Amino acid sequence: MSNNNKKWFSLNLGRKDKESSGSCGCGKTSGGCGSHASETTEMTDEAFAEAAINASIGEERVKDGFEQVFDVKMDRRSAFKKLTASLLIGAGAVSTSCSMISGDESKEKAQIDWEEQFKGNYKLMTDEEKQATVDRLMRSYELRTGKNISMSSKNAEDDVLFGYAFNISKCQGYMDCVNACVEENNQDRDSQMQYIRIHEMKDGKGFNFNEADDNYYHEVPAEGHFYMGTQCFHCDNPPCVEVCPVQATWREADGLVVVDYDWCVGCRYCMAACPYDGRRFNWSKPEVPEAEVNHNQHYLGNRLRKKGVMEKCTFCVQRSRAGKNPACVEACPTGARIFGNLLDPKSTIRWVLENKKVFRLKEDLGTEPKFWYFMD
Amino acid sequence: MRRFKVLKSLIRDSLDTITHGSRKYHLWMAALTFIMLVGMYCYSIQLDQGLSVTGMTDKVSWGLYISNFTFLVGVAAAAVMLVMPTYVLKDIDFKQAVLIGEGVAVAALIMCLAFVIADMGGPSVLWHMIPGIGVFNFPNSMLTWDVLVLNGYLFLNITIPFYILFRHYQGKKSKKSVYVPGAFISVFWAVAIHLVTAFLYQGLQARPFWNNALLGPRFLASAFAAGPALIILVLAIIRSYTTFKIEDKTIKKIAMVVTVAAQINLIMLISELFKEFYAPTHHSESAYYLFFGLDGKNALLPWIWTAISLNVLATVILTFHKLRNNFKVLFFACFILFIAIWIEKGFGLIVPGFIPGPYGKIAEYTPTGIEIGVTLGIWALGAFVFTILAKTAIGIEIGKLRYKK
Amino acid sequence: MRKIVCGFVFLIVFYSCKHGEGEYHGVIEKIEAESENYHGTSISSEQYLEDIKTIEISEDGHTFLIPDRKGQIKSYACTECHTQPLAKMQSKDVKKAHWDIKLNHANENTMNCVTCHNPDNMDNLKSLTGNDIDFNNSYNLCNQCHTKQFEDWKGGAHGKRIGGWAPPRASLTCVNCHNPHKPHFETRWPVRYNTQTVKERD
């Protein structure tokens, strides 16, 4: 992504030109350097607010994403932004940082929250900015839970386009994939959110979803039935991406349709636009017991979500971009699920597309799913 | 500088007007305030716990809020049916009504925006939508078009009456050359807000119930029936409670507009029903659900049949001159027509779009108490805003409010 | 005035046309075009295969890894026990090893133990024509009958990929999923049941 034009929201909260007294010269992007609290404890409220703002801007940091964000001269436009910003959470954030001056950590927490609230759209970030937000999120998790997570911001690789094939004759309906998916992707346990649905279809009725059951509970495979899994098909012409008013969801270069959970405003237009039931909404705060949290995360993938945002299958971006198969593919005991690089002429997915009789669901809608079905 | 002084005086005077009134007026405002407070309380619960306190699910992901939003866009657009004859066609009949109509539009638009915000999962990051500081997915997303046209229409409907009232307040005549271009634009704009809102749904290939070419035109027809019907009712109330003079022929003319729109709406309804049921396809299932129920799930049946029968009844009443010219009958017809279209263009349109789901699964939707509370609160907000606007406007128009030098 | 309005309308319409950014008519066309000069990627799944002992096989132009089999068989080599003909071993007082294996694979007319096992050379399998087949390459035994499945397996449509999607390709071989003595999959309960969905649909 190019750097030369300003592509995203930026905010100048009264950044001063004067050099600060070296209070934050540690150069860390997310770690606390420890000198703020002691300095600010005896300040007046006004001076404190200024210091808090300075802290959140981090004057002497390395040139990370936020340096670039906040490094704009104050003009009328940014003054307006400042106004908007303060209207939104200003009061809350400042009061948080003021009331907890005793702890360096809570100070840092407030700083991270502030920066996270006003960061830009991940899609438009440079690699450094992506790294910075990921660092902040990791640090924030550490501050809140005392545990470490590893979060990646790995970009799409050149010459990769992910595709998926599903063998209807092989699926036995065990739902191991559903289980693996929930565990891998940190989905809300309370509402039992699941990306994958396995439809139990009657033989001789064709692909009649109306009569299919996607929530069966009996010994499988059941006599006279076959099984068909659906999830997000990562369309090449995704209607959900078109309709998003804020570009919080988009198609990556490797074909994954992803969501920036922090940019999503929760209007659910994409959900109405998806013909494949591929999207899920966090109607309440998602809960995952700490012991079950998958700590290997990706910003666009399985990191912990908040309430009121959209989420969906990402073909396990945290795994697939590292060369692994998505959790569902790995968990499938029957080998019904095939995943791979569509651009690699030697890949197994290409062999399937070229040698088996493949079809896709609702092809007439022109969405071009990258998820094919086939039979033995 | 002088203008600021006048403005200051206008604000002071209008504050004075809206805080004084009869006992009934105070009761009305107190009731509205109470409902708004209840609505705010309900909304605070929703903010705290998330949208899970509503009846919406992953299956039916839009409900009462978006239904009301859709309907109210229509009400807002209806102001144009009064603006056009008055300003554009120079039929002075409507002069009195048009300010009221624009007040209704402003209130409806504020309600629209409130409903959209109530429906958002993350209202705290709504700034992501503001062009310039957020990312505005224009022109791809119809929602961004809707944001633009709604706010533009709101702006037009605030500025035009404000200009006229501001002049009248100073005892001056309003200049045609200033407000007529604005009125012209607002005529097209009103059609635009409606079509764009219809396109919001019409453009989704995932939902065959919405994805039909008649949706937009039918939206317009029903809006031009329901909106003026509401304005007639409002005028009737204003006529009986204030000294503001509204002539019978004004109401009769608006009734004519309602009649024609209701008739066209009915023709389109027949066309729609024919298409869905003469040769039903897989895509007719939503219509089947709406009108007859599917697999024993029939929550919308009583609603839609009430709406259809009220709609037909009202249209029949309005069609006969004798009945229409009897004001008691007219007001009754307008009332039932308004209710009918609220049901039909509200959740009768939104909810069946999601049922059955993309894979034929039927999960019904029932709004929860909290959702209804927020909805009522927003309606009360609209009524409150309208009352304030109307009271000030009437004060100026009947000459009670004048700038004292 | 009118010209300006017309120009403005044209610009809006022009700007609103969203189709045109797509170079291809469909995703298949895109795949074909873009894979023409495919250079390979830096992503490898080698690291995920480190823990598994694999052997490389090459069949009809498909070269890939399969798990080593001999190391997985508990009592390989067979001749460590099978030093004498079977009849003699049964009569003796030795500990029973796999006496409980019941062949549930095709019918008796088609198969019995010696269809695959060579009573004269227990350390290898044998083809229908009596040639030796290494335990590691047991798929060659299966493909004598299951030719269609073998074709799919070679291409990657049948069987399970291990490691990751990235090269090098490693797939499970027949006997990793199918017990050769009882090759079908058992029925069992699904591992998950969504009680929330049931509530929603009531």
Automatic annotation (TrEMBL), chain A:
Cleaved signal peptide residues: none
Keywords: 4Fe-4S, Iron, Iron-sulfur, Metal-binding
One example GO MF annotation: 4 iron, 4 sulfur cluster binding
Pfam families, A to Z: Fer4_11 (PF13247)
Region (Disordered): 16-38
Gene3D superfamilies per record: 3.30.70.20
Top-level lineage group: Bacteria
Gly residues: bias regions: 24-34
Domain 4Fe-4S ferredoxin-type: 255-284
Name of protein: 4Fe-4S dicluster domain-containing protein
TrEMBL record, chain B:
Keyword Calcium part of the UniProt annotation: no
Keywords associated with the record: Cell membrane, Membrane, Transmembrane, Transmembrane helix
Cellular localisation: Cell membrane
Membrane spanning residue stretches: 27-46, 66-85, 97-118, 147-166, 178-201, 221-242, 254-274, 300-320, 329-355, 375-396
Membrane-protein topology: Multi-pass membrane protein
GO cellular component term of the entry, any: plasma membrane
Keyword Transferase applies: no
Matching InterPro entries: DsrP-like, NrfD-like
PANTHER family with a match to the protein in the record: POLYSULPHIDE REDUCTASE NRFD, PTHR43044
Protein family per UniProt: Belongs to the NrfD family.
Protein name: Polysulfide reductase
Organism lineage: Bacteria, Pseudomonadati, Bacteroidota, Flavobacteriia, Flavobacteriales
Automatic annotation (TrEMBL), chain C:
PROSITE patterns, per database record: PROKAR_LIPOPROTEIN
Keyword vocabulary terms for this entry: Signal
The organism's place on the tree of life at top rank: Bacteria
Domain Doubled CXXCH motif as annotated: residue spans: 105-149
Pfam families the UniProt entry points to: Paired_CXXCH_1
UniProt xrefs under InterPro entries: Multihaem_cyt_sf (IPR036280), Multiheme_Cytochr_ET (IPR051829), Paired_CXXCH_1 (IPR010177)
Name the UniProt record assigns to this protein: Cytochrome C
Species annotation: Seonamhaeicola maritimus
